[in-house]
Sequence to fold (228 residues):
Amino acid sequence: DVVMTQSPLSLPVTLGQPASISCRSSQSLVHSDGNTYLIWFQQRPGRSPRRLTYEVSNRDSGVPDRFSGSGSGTDFTLKISRVEAEDVGLYYCMQVSYWPWTFGQGTKVEIK
Amino acid sequence: EVQLVESGGGLVQPGGSLRLSCAASGFTFSSYDMNWVRQAPGKGLEWVSYISASGTGFYYADSVKGRFTISRDNAKTSVYLQMNSLGTEDTATYYCARGHFLFDPWGQGTLVTVSS
Fold:
């Protein structure tokens, strides 16, 4: 199975400051079709997960442009350019390139 | 509006069975693969099962293989998860999510508690 490793697992951030979450996979996520199927989700407290980005860097409609995904191969990053109070919650990366699909452990973003 | 609504969760004894449902609306259900994902209390997300749009292809996580069965009814725009031989380790909120490479959107989840 592809192991997804996120860091840090806890991320205290000052409002208005940037934040960055790393996600590393145990093997390259390049699919046989040439695409890289890496998704980032946000889960606010008490809510269902919400997709933020797909195929590494495509941001979903309605997602603020302060969120950006990047990376390639085995190394991926979710960046928040300026953290706002509504960004508090858990963030997960997930790979859907290889069965079984697997998630990272989650990163908890909180305000200092 | 695209919407997924899960139901069927509840309290069940170890060794028991439960059938979860996910009702879809706002999109052409028969064109989309579907998934079940679960989250144990205070824990992370775990993909559980996948079914193709036609219902002829499916996959399971090793942790549920042989105990859980995914199915769908395109006429009723619903996907189901039959869960047998439940153990305490299956206690979780179960979500359905649309798509093979999409995982968007997710339903609100239904809580399954396995306890004596």
